[in-house]
Write a structure and sequence with these properties.
The chain has 77 residues and is mainly α. It has one domain. The protein has three helices and no strands.
Length: 77
């Protein structure tokens, strides 16, 4: 299954971004990593399709490597 290219946020991408920023606010590095891991698993469960998840992981890895990211550091708001 191909990853969607449309506005999956129904025009509310800024709201979704703010929810994510707020979720990481005031967490230390270990807490941020734990939240990221849990969030990924929860969202993967919601997606439910292994091929979609495989495509999303591949896209994320390509973009990380393309940007030369080795340690993004802690998330701050």
């Amino acid at each position: 299954m191909a990853l969607r290219q449309d506005d999956g946020f129904s025009g509310r991408a800024d709201d979704v971004y703010q929810i994510l920023v707020d979720g990481f606010r005031a967490l230390d590095e270990a807490e941020s990593a734990a939240l990221t891991q849990r969030l990924v698993l929860i969202l993967a469960h919601e997606v439910g399709d292994p091929e979609t998840i495989r495509a999303a992981v591949a896209l994320a890895r390509r973009t990380v490597r393309a940007e030369g990211v080795t340690d993004p550091g802690p998330v701050s708001a």
